[in-house]
Each structure stands twice: as C-alpha cells, then as structure tokens.
User: What shape does this take?
Amino acid sequence: MDRDDPAYKGQRDYTRPFLAVYDAWVLGVAARWIWRCPTPRLVEGYRQRIRDRHLDVGPGTGYFIEKSGLPKGSRVTLVDPNRSVLAHASKRLRGYDVTPVEADVLKPLPVDGPFDSAALHLVIHCLPGPLSRKAAAVADVAAVLAPDGVLFGASVLGMSGPQTRLSRRVLSVFNRQGGFDNLDDTEDGLRDILAASFEQVELEIVGSVAIFAATAPRLETAR
Assistant: This one.
C-alpha cells in the first residue's frame, strides 16, 4: 500500500515481528484486560457464522479461522493490503484452500464471489474515519456476498463507548500513533453503516467491543 494512502497507518505495524507476538498481546492481554472482551467470546462468533466459501478481510494471524471449526479443505479468501499478513495467515491456514488477495477493502474488491460468509473482524476500528467513510468497506463486502450470506465481526468502539480509564488511555495512544482511527466510532454509527448495506443487523456490546452480524445484503448500496 502506498504510504500516502489514508489507510496506510492502520496496517503498517503488521510486520513479521509484530505478527509473531500478535496472538499473545492483542488476543491475550489487550482483549481481556483492556477491551474486556475475552478472545473465546470472539471465537464464538466465528464458530456460529463461518461457512465454506468464506471471505476474511484483515485476517491477522489467521487465529480465528483456525479456531472456528471450519472443516479443513474449505475455501477461504484472505484480503489484506499487507503482504506480511497474507503470508503469515496463509502459512498458518495451509490446511484450507486459501486464496490470498492483496487489496484495500475501502476500494471495490478484486475477488471472485459470491461468498457464503465474510468477516470484518477487528478491522473497522483500524480504517480511516469517520464512520461514514468506513461504510464503503461494509458496502464492498456486501457486494460480493451471496443473497443468503452473512457478514460478521467485531470492532472497538470510540470514546463515547463503555470505556474504562485504562481503555481510554490506550485508545488515545493508538489513535495518535495511527493504528486506530476510531475515537468517534459509536454503537449507533456502526449499526447505521451496517444497516445501509444489509436489511438485518445484530449488534452486541461486550466490554468496549461491538460484536455484529448482518444478513440479507441490499441489492443496491450507495458507496
């Protein structure tokens, strides 16, 4: 990704050294003690909703797909603008039929759909804001889902969400550094951008995290 791209800061830290400690730090320490949404709760969303012909946008280390219970050999397409992420996750998920695609979800996706399920998991809070701009990511995923497909995922809410003193401090640091751009992300705002592309939206708040699922993609969604 070009360094001048607004989305660059949200993915630049995903280097090979960081990916080596990602599970322990982000999914271990941060999920439980900062955002108060333990990783097993996030895995549950994958286990409930992932299907064959799955699209995973921002797959991280591939941890959640590996823990999802998806049968080996299932078709999985990984989308990320960062080659290190694609290489790391593809290696971890080598028991699946993996197709890695280097692309930015804020632009129309160069993938072969339709997909039965898709995940925007721990991604939206990293995209350049405001939420009205992030709506393009939801619309781009909706455009490649099957009519009965499901989009699911989770995102850390901004300062108006149910934050603690610690999580507010961490939010401020991450937003100044550029890894997050979510200070103004709200529960209602997230629901609105999901509803713009899907007829049915479920959203649950666990700690500082909004866990969501959306079905029945709208046939025509304005980007």
Summary: The first strand starts at residue 54 and ends at 57. The longest helix spans residues 16-34. The two ends are 21 Å apart (CA to CA).
